[in-house]
Amino acid sequence: MKKSRDDYLTIFFIAIAATYILATLALPMYAILSKSIENKEGLFIGLSNYKYYFSNPSLFYSIYNSLFVSIITTIISVTLSFMFAYALTRSCMRAKPFFKTMAMIPILLPSLLAGIALIYLFGNQGVFKALLMGRSIYGPIGIIIAEVFYTFPHALLIIITALSIADARLYEAATVLRSSPIRTFFTVTIPSAKYGLMSACFVVFTLVITDFGIPKVIGGQYNVLAIDVYKQVIGQQNFEMGAVVSVVLIIPALLAFIVDRIVQKKQISILTARSVVYEPKKNKTFDLMMFLYCSLITLFILTMVGMCLYASLIKFWPYNLSFSLKNYHFDLMDGGGWDSYYNSIKMASYTAFFGTIIVFTSAYFIEKARTIKTARIMMHLLSMMPMAIPGMVLGLAYIFFFNNPNNPFNFIYGTMAILVICTITHFYTVSHLTAITALKQIDYEFESVSSSLKQPFYKMFFSVTVPISLPVIFEIGIYFFVNAMTTVSAVVFIYGPKTTLASVAVLNMDDAGDIAPAAAMGMMIFYTNAFVRISYVIITKKVLVKFQQWRTK
Amino acid sequence: MTHYLTVKNVSKSFGKFQALQNTSFEVQEGELVCILGPSGCGKTTLLRVIAGLEEQNSGQIIQQGREITNLPPDQRDFGIVFQSYALFPNLSVKDNITFGLKTRKQSNEIIEQRLNELLSLIGLESHKNKYPSQLSGGEQQRVALARALAPSPGLLLLDEPLSALDAKVRQFLRSEIKNLQKKLGVTTVMVTHDQEEALSMADRIILMNKGVIEQIDTPQDLYSKPHTSFAADFIGKTNLFKATKNTEHSLMMFGQNFECHQLLTQNELMVAVRPEDIKITDQITKNNTLSGVVKEIEFLGSYSIGLIEVSHNNQRKSLICHLPLDNNARNDLKKNSLVNILLSPQSLKIVNSDLQI
Ligand SMILES: Nc1ncnc2c1ncn2[C@@H]1O[C@H](COP(=O)(O)OP(=O)(O)OP(=O)(O)O)[C@@H](O)[C@H]1O
Ligand SMILES: [Mg+2]
């Protein structure tokens, strides 16, 4: 069939999107791969870097340590969040919305802050140091506690979804068959949440094994792979070795990603089955137990945040506990001062603005265009890739790619633009999937109607698709904003002297021993994110309703 | 004579599955043609090929003498209404209807005038500022129709426009759409799987089965002169029998001789008889009568349906026949009573068949 003007426009836009994703994802990844098989002079030396690296015995400690903390954290975090999700979906306890909100707090903080909180709580001068009975918080214990705190909401969200699709009919059947509650739990609850649990495991595992902020702050002498990359690049300026460790680090992340994708494909069939929504029944003892459990977790979360808040507002822990704002005088310390904070706000705003536009329009073409199907499928696959790439590896890849003098985009190196682009790419996949899911719910005949009425697709896009999708567009924007504020790993290698960021400042101030100011800066990020989140809730309640009148009957 | 729309040998397959096989037909200007067939027979696919929303593998489509086979939808001249209506939920009735009118460099007054024309055409003047979710199913359907008609397309395509509505509204909208179509004189192709809808609305019906056109005829002819056993069976109720040729105008069924008006050419025959063409009779004549046993009677108000079993050489066959009420009373038919039935020479219709009975 002849191509229409819309088809040509579509091809044009997909070509742009493809170029963008190639330049910001595929080529940098290629750059890091080729860097790992070059020597310092840039000559091809085959696998000798790998040979050298694997001949170093300390590497195996790193791999072992990485796997150890990742696996233990996964077990603890998924267990705790499963119980929490179980309480939220299967009990009649009070204050469910409150608990759910509290459980989401860690998402709004840079992960480093969890490490800092632990230093105040259990460090050498910690409040609860005695609880450790002589053991040190610096090392695997600290890493695991902080990682559990950091990964808890991520696992929780996935498991809540898995548990809320439970089929009430299965539970009725179990009751009729006089199955004991424990037996029902193991024969009905666990199997039906199986895929969600597996998915949560993969997500937590990947988050932990690729995270370097927490081990950096509280790991002490305990080396993990992510720290190795950081040390090679920042400490020793050995970029080739950094590339080698990066490639090694990608392997477990990539494996987890692939297995998770396969598992997710299976889950779809469960989701589409017609099931009856499960309504929990009152049970005093059980509800009370669940309430106590959730209170305990909430107390832990609030203690962590509260400790940082408190530490940031006093003169000098633990000797002078009088109130002071001196820790917020960032301009007097390392890390870039208040400028870092303003840079972060700018960076997060740009990321949210451009990221949302790029993600949503690309997703629209991928999902709704009717021409060049193969190219669209390829684009979708490419959009899934960033999920499998650790932020630090992406950042390092950006150095290799954009710092190359032959690259025509070399000029963005060291600017705000590279930070924004890297952050958008780093958080691309989740946003992409959110957009695709929303677009799938819009009638596919809209495009047909529009072209039968001889209207260009962009008229349809702006006057129908975008207004209908506003809530999801905001959701994506906020996701970008919050994550851009907190991310360290994606930006730690590529910020420049004029583009220092708040999250990196937390890291650098902590490194310089200014822990209280680091906590204060972390709290600034928290206040900002909390403010954005809360404003969003108010805006959707009050303002969006006005634009969404058509939703009401 | 030239046709408004000509579809020539159009085939379409999805992978290995052949959804349309060499379909050909013509539509006259101002005609309302229904594509009728069971679910999955390829009706929607055919409509989407005409619209250019689906690309055919081979064949030709000509509209008003212009070859449109390879044109994208926005270069063809048609309006379409989908089963889901696909009304834009965030636009008011007014904005939905005028969606295809704006940017055509038309002045606001002309657009406003056209809008009012269409609104009064569908009788929804007072609803123009409402959103689709505030309308009933039937109203939404009419808005979708008005939106498709707004740019005055030469061809109107309707995909099961009434199937999402309940029976009462459906009845009403049938005549509504039909009147509207006649009033505007717009050539219309409508897809439906509901035979009553097709019989009551269409000027001609294109009957489809498994991607193949079985018959194209007026509703009356399709009903009274089905060409194939599928046509006979799909439209209304039919009794189908196997028979063998006797002479050019008589055949053997159930060991009896039957005279027949149609000229017989083949030896193995398939005969279709409508239930209302079967008569209960007192006399037994030499030809065209059978005796059987009443197995069931179902009372349906103005008439009853009887199930009559005839047997021959250990072969049993049940016939459905209509029993008019007075007939019923006169003969005092009961279950298991013996009856004689008459199948007149006109009532026997010879059909082509791939069916095995
Ligand atoms: N995009 C597609 N890919 C693969 N198969 C398809 C596709 N569209 C339709 N089909 C198949 O082609 C056949 C005809 O489909 P079509 O939608 O034309 O049927 P229909 O006659 O409109 O049926 P219904 O009355 O149920 O709407 C069906 O078997 C369907 O499964
Ligand atoms: Mg259909």
CATH architecture of the largest domain in chain B: 3-Layer(aba) Sandwich
Global mean pLDDT of chain B = 88
Total beta strand runs of chain A: 2
Radius of gyration of chain A: 25 Å
What is the number of domains of chain B?
2
Query: Distance between termini of chain A?
Result: 42 Å
Give helix and strand order of chain B, one letter per element, not per position: EEEHEEEHHHEHEHEEHHEEEEEEEEHEE
Strands ordered across the widest β-sheet of chain A: 1-2
Beta-strand percentage of chain A?
Answer: under 5%
Protein topology:
The complex is a heterodimer of chains A (about 550) and B (about 350).
Chain A: H1 5-35, H2 48-54, H3 57-90, H4 96-103, H5 112-122, H6 140-164, H7 168-176, H8 181-192, H9 194-210, H10 213-218, H11 225-235, H12 239-272, H13 284-312, E1 314-316, E2 320-323, H14 337-368, H15 373-384, H16 391-402, H17 416-426, H18 428-440, H19 445-452, H20 457-486, H21 502-511, H22 515-547
Antiparallel strand pairs in A: 1-2
Helix pairs in contact in A: 1-14, 1-15, 1-16, 3-6, 3-9, 5-6, 5-13, 5-22, 6-9, 9-12, 11-12, 12-16, 13-22, 14-15, 14-17, 14-18, 14-20, 14-21, 16-17, 18-20, 20-22, 21-22
Chain B: E1 5-14, E2 17-27, E3 32-36, H1 43-51, E4 58-63, E5 66-67, E6 79-81, H2 93-97, H3 108-122, H4 137-149, E7 155-159, H5 167-184, E8 187-192, H6 195-201, E9 204-209, E10 212-217, H7 219-224, H8 229-234, E11 239-247, E12 250-253, E13 256-259, E14 268-273, E15 278-281, E16 289-299, E17 303-312, E18 315-324, H9 325-331, E19 338-343, E20 349-350
Parallel strand pairs in B: 3-8, 3-9, 6-7, 7-8
Antiparallel strand pairs in B: 1-2, 1-4, 4-5, 9-10, 11-12, 11-14, 12-13, 14-20, 15-19, 16-17, 16-19, 17-18
Adenosine-5'-triphosphate (ATP) binds near residues 39 and 42 of chain B.
